[in-house]
Amino acid sequence: MFTMLHSQQADGYKLWLKYDKIENSELLNEYAEIVSSIYFKDDNDILKNAKKEFSLALPQMLNKQVKYSSNISSDNSLIVDVYENLPNDLKDLVGNDIEVLTDEGFIIKSLTYKKKSITIISAKKNIGILYATFRFLHLMQTHKKLKSIDLVDSPKVDLRMLNHWDNLDRSVERGYAGFSLWNWQKLPEYIDQRYIDYARANASIGINSTVLTNVNANALVLTPMYLEKVEALANVFRGYGIKVYLTARFSAPIEIGNLETSDPLNPEVEKWWSNKVAEIYKRIPDFGGFLVKANSEGQPGPQNYGRNHVDGANMMATALKPFGGNVIWRAFVYSEHDDTDRAKQAYDEFLPYDGKFKDNVLVQVKNGAIDFQPREPFHPMFGAMKKTPLVIEFQITQEYLGFSSHLVFLPKLFEEVLDSDTYQKGKGSTVAKVIDGSLYGNTLSGIAGVANIGTDLNWTGHPFAQANWYGFGRLAWDPDLSSEKIADEWLRATYSNNQDFIEPVKNLMLTSREAVVNYMNPLGLHHIFDTGHHYGPGPWVDNLGRPDWNPVYYHQADANGIGFDRTPSGSNATEQYASYLEKTFNDINTIPEEYLLWFHHVPWDYKLQNGNTLWDGIALKYQEGVNDVTHMIQTWDNAKPYLNDSEYNEVKMLLQIQLKEAKWWRDACLLYFQTFSKKELPEGVEKPTQSLEYYKSLKFPFAPGIRPQWD
Ligand code: GCV
Known about the structure:
- The protein has three domains: 15-153, Chitobiase, domain 2, CATH 3.30.379; 163-482, Glycosidases (TIM Barrel); 518-564 and 601-697, Alpha-d-glucuronidase, C-terminal Domain, CATH 3.90.1330.
- Helix content is 37%, strand content 10%.
- The chain is built from 21 helices and 16 strands.
- The longest helix is centred in the C-terminal third of the chain and has 33 residues, at 645-677.
- 4-O-methyl-alpha-D-glucopyranuronic acid binds next to loops.
- One of its GO terms (biological process) is glucuronoxylan catabolic process.
């Protein structure tokens, strides 16, 4: 059971599962009545964990012990059990609602049973009961009325997955919250309480799959010594409905199998993978499958043998199929031998394969065509690839968003992408409908988020980064949820239900994403981060091995203007979108201004919609970003009365770092772009305090998230 030392009360470890005492007496009475006598069947691990959560949460929230009965009786005020165990008269009362549920869905309903008002929590399967338990407790934590509740809910997406980019040495690629949670050295014997609390937190928001290892994979994890450790983790996670996946290094047959090749069409290689899969399922009968990064950024893959992505993915899919496992094949590919605009390459490479993958292959596509930028138009593969289930990959860890020192509420970004209309099957063909499978009737669907979790006491480095983990899970469950609702839920469960606190701080969260766009990459600028570690600005970087690793490739600033021409006069990446969008993006008069410099090379004197020249507009946007952070600090200061000292101080200190770095971004980028525009900063933009040479001289060989490089 999850316990906490008193001195750690405000450390953020409890996440959104704090279960604070309900102070409002009316609500307290209502809740106490609802749970006055509970029937809660717990004859298996999942139900035991669900009931444990009740036993932890209710005494804390209601400040009294709760009575459980071992049989259903007329005394019960709350009945919790799967549908098939319910007495027939109760089945009759809820039958229709149960029918519409998926295997993971649940109902929470008030009804009259034997002339008495009761609440029932039921589901088709045990996992539905666990999800319902967390939702029920969350509704209490967030002070929702439960007296006449009528909730019927099922997840809209099948695979709701975290991708950990965790290495076996416990470093985390692009991780900013300490080391990897997986203590490989002490596994399998030592089960850290963190594994259990990690699983609880995920289950509470409906996450049902986790990929334990980095996509830049190490084959060792597939050896017996590590599989034994993976098995131990899977045994913990199973009780919370979470399946384990591993990343499969394509060259594993050579590296750990003593074969001379990894050619996917070689019978020895096929046999090796089939045996390996059988070995894994012997240990982990509900193993999820493999996530594969192949022929991307130097990783081995089928192309090393003259084969293609379909050959590679289908070979692994064949091995996994008898056990019900999936292959998740990443489409994050771009080649140093191809000078086509990097934004076009994945679409060009994968579209011809549509319909050729086996039915247990999903193709995982990043939300945008470059790489998790503060703002990108949605990836053109969404909607275009009609016969292949696409998993959308979001990055919860903030590689390009200020690491764990910037407060950026990412559900706002996720929502923008999911709500984007691809127009691929007429108006209303949103990315969300592609992902939940409803647009083309896919039988499998998935959402993946690159985790922002590590060994930091508060799990995510920044207390508000917890909201990004939380929000990812909620959107994976229901891609149509609004970011506003998610912020509201999270704030209530994490900090306070006081409306005077919620409203301004919610507003702070909802505006934080636009702030980071403004002070880092306004008006469609992208990938102008410093080299390798991606910490801070580096628009001047032009000396990396591949053109498309250099910021100068992306902004294309020159004496005439700035921006990447992706219209027909340039790379013509716009042709990868449905014709309505293609036209909208091609025309400088119709393109949404937030994507202007993503698709157009624009003269410095070009007039923006508000009448400013482009140069003035860029400069004012950078300043606006800095001003936004100043407002965030003011809002946080005003919220102080609702926070304890440590809660207030930790975010305040982080916001001050964010302000300093927002100014750094503004000054470094404007000084550099000014060398091309040759124009003065407009009124209202603060003058830089340092020279361009100073900003260029800054080096961060030990920035977190990558292996240190000192040259
Ligand atoms: C795991 C970007 C990141 C890499 C990451 C890669 C990927 O290039 O900078 O750290 O590698 O994306 O998603 O595969």
